[in-house]
Amino acid sequence: MNIQQEAIKLKGKWITTTFKEAKEGSVKSLIDEIVIDAVKGFVFYGIAVHDHKDTFRYFVGYPSIDGTVILPQGNYYAVKKPKDAEQAYLKIKKMNLPIKPLFEGNPNYDALPVKIEVYRDTGLNSELIEILIPLQ
């Protein structure tokens, strides 16, 4: 479903990682670092930017008035409470949506060059509560 999203300032950390490193836990380690002291119910964002051939950038952060990463106001395609993120991304790719690149880089390395995932910390793990894809 298409939604209008307000601008959000996020405070957190970027990493550049390979797909192999991500499978081995680089993204999970970053998430653990950011949410280590989080209270149950804490909402945070994971942003994957696929703009390089063999690597991608991943950001983990939380809404903060002094955040430096900004998700701009605009139109987004949203999937609420996806049961399977991979299946959701496959469906979105087939829709041929007009994707809006949000960050510098060449968006031609992936049909979905920017993937935004919203999580809620449940105390024991993190629950994916929404996927956002920026639209032109």
Write a concise synopsis of the structure shown.
With 136 residues, this protein is an alpha+beta fold. The chain contains 3 helices and 8 strands.
Q: Can you offer a commentary on this structure?
A:
The protein is an alpha+beta fold and 136 residues long. 18% of the residues lie in helices and 43% in strands. It has an eight-stranded antiparallel beta sheet with strand order 1-6-8-7-3-4-2-5. Strand 3 and strand 4 form a beta hairpin.
Q: Give helix and strand order, one letter per element, not per position.
A: EEHHEEEEHEE
Strand % is 35-45%
**Side-by-side strand order of the widest sheet:** 1-6-8-7-3-4-2-5
Largest pleated sheet:
8 strands, antiparallel
Please tally the helical runs, counting DSSP H or I stretches of 4 or more residues. 3
Structural class: alpha+beta
Give the overall silhouette: globular
* Low-confidence segments: none
Q: Could you tell me how far the N terminus lies from the C terminus, measured between alpha carbons in angstroms?
A: 15 Å
- Report the C-alpha radius of gyration, rounded: 14 Å
Q: Which percent bin holds the helix content?
A: 10-25%
Mean pLDDT: 87
Number of strands: 8
